[in-house]
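re the bet — no i am not wrong, look at it urself. input seq straight from the record:
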Amino acid sequence: MQYALSIFLSGISLGGQYALIAIGYTLVYGILRLINFAHGDVFMVAGLFMVYLSSALPLYVALPLMLVLTVALGFAIERAAYKPLRSAPRMSVMISAIGVSYLLQNLATYVTGGLPKSYPSLPLLSDSVTIGGVSTKWVTVITPFLVVALVFALQQLINHTKVGMAMRAVAKDFETSQLMGIKINSVISMTFIIGSALAAVGSMLYFTNYPSIVPLSGALPGLRAFVAAVFGGIGSIPGAVVGAFIIGMSESVIKGSPFSIFSDAFTFALLIVILVVKPTGLFGEKVTDKV
């Protein structure tokens, strides 16, 4: 019983952390039809920001400053790497995204010397708690509730604000929205800002559980979050969240078994099965091309 509870708590916590990254993928894809391959590395850089800021500043200053710097990084990436390629072929934009990913990894290697950095211990999140006889960290308990609250707030923003209406219009029809006077660049920048802010929160939760950060620390979580977004139906926020929780739970179950080495293989095998049965993902909708 305690073993099952431990697996469950680990799974929903990991799934929630993947969900915050996956939302960034699905938001950008919904508007630009672009896979932002640098998103996982933004997540990693947010962790390094916190490491260096917390060593020089009190945590109550370092934490909001980390959020601001991560948002600024996401905004700068969009303006420098994606905005100049608005009318370029999609392949060019994808290559630019991969280039940004490697640039961030190389910069992180230069700054850290390639050595692991230890994430700071955050009050409350890093403290231990016992649930049903299972000892875990408070971050494991808080993560799913925080994720649900953030997703609810995001849905309210998208469905009930002027910015959200513009985002939905651009996602529906990019060209027509532009003709109707919607400021496309502002909408896209807002999308990257929201995605980067969620990735920063996700990094805080993830690295509290896995406190060692290296320049490649964003690669696997970013890839799993991307799989979760595709699994749930890329472009769908609820789909990204549900997909992330399924991926997180599956990973925890496999890692708790004698076949832990196959955890990543199982994740992608599950994705293949879903895409064979339902190519648009669990919550995805068919897209009809205009002719």
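see?? The chain has a mean pLDDT of 88. told u. also The first strand starts at residue 117 and ends at 118. so pay up
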